[in-house]
Design goal:
Elements: E1 9-18, E2 21-31, E3 36-40, H1 47-55, E4 62-67, E5 70-72, H2 76-80, E6 83-86, H3 98-108, H4 113-126, H5 142-154, E7 160-164, H6 172-187, E8 191-195, H7 199-205, E9 208-213, E10 216-222, H8 223-226, H9 233-241
Parallel strand pairs: 3-8, 3-9, 6-7, 7-8
Antiparallel strand pairs: 1-2, 1-4, 4-5, 9-10
Helix pairs in contact: 3-4, 3-5
Length: 255
């Protein structure tokens, strides 16, 4: 299959071992293009480790990764030029202003100086960060850092977005704006690969979801196919990963 007609993401037998523990254990998954895909799991399930491998930040112990029809890490430079990243850690340059950082990212993706500066200014205004003026990113709140990371991810019009908890710490107005922008990108043919603990957001946005637990894929499919009857995504999630082992009934003083 030629790269332009291949799936956005293909993962086969992916494993990542730290010491004696497999953070990701035999993951096989395909994400088609123009899809809003939710990648879910409880804390420690292996979501961030998987995204770090997709980004090329962590080499897999075993398995194969193909992104936009190209092999990772063998074709990492070509792949990275076509994806937009919002990592969970918000890896930003604290000693730049938001505008300087977004312009810098545009230049790194090959945009000319004037175009990078123009787009950076427009994105800062769009995300309501233009009023931050000369404030350094080190002074930004967590929500502001997420918004500037999203602005930087958009500047080169990528084909695929890898988003690790992009709405964490973002207020309702900022989150609504980010959701609208991402939905518009999907309508224009981009693919979104999203992790989030806010299941209501995933339920509203995503076409398909995968749930992993202890590094292994538990379920994957279209949202309406996976839910039973009137189940919410939260109901589905709790059903497949296991409900809470304890309840407040164990503590007399909470009753």
């Amino acid at each position: 299959m030629t790269p332009e007609f291949s799936p956005a993401i293909e993962i086969r037998g992916l494993r990542k071992v730290y010491g004696e523990k497999a953070a990701v254990d035999g993951l096989t998954l395909t994400v088609q293009r123009s899809c809003f895909f939710g990648f879910l799991g409880p804390n420690g399930a292996g979501k961030t480790t998987t995204i770090r491998m997709l980004m090329g930040l962590a080499p897999p112990t075993e398995g194969e990764i193909r992104i936009l029809g190209r092999a990772m890490p063998e074709e990492a430079l070509e792949i990275k030029s076509r994806i937009g990243l919002v990592p969970d850690e918000s890896l930003l340059f604290d000693h730049l202003t938001g505008l300087e950082f977004v312009e810098f990212v545009g230049r790194m993706y090959g945009l000319g100086r004037e175009l990078a500066r123009k787009r950076a200014g427009e994105l800062m205004e769009l995300f309501e960060l233009d009023t931050a003026g000369r404030k350094l990113i080190a002074e930004y709140s967590k929500g502001m850092r997420k918004r500037v990371a999203m602005a930087a991810a958009l500047i080169h019009r990528p084909e695929l977005f890898l988003l690790d908890e992009p709405f964490e710490g973002v207020d309702a107005v900022g989150a609504r704006l980010m959701k609208d922008i991402l939905l518009e990108q999907v309508r224009q043919g981009a693919t979104i690969f999203l992790t989030s603990h806010v299941l209501e957001v995933v339920e509203r946005l995503c076409d398909r979801v995968a749930i992993i637990h202890q590094g292994r894929l538990i379920v994957e499919g279209a949202m309406e196919e996976l839910r039973a009857g009137e189940e919410t995504l939260e109901d589905l999630f709790v059903r497949v990963v296991g409900g809470p082992a304890r309840s407040t009934e164990a503590l007399d003083w909470l009753r």
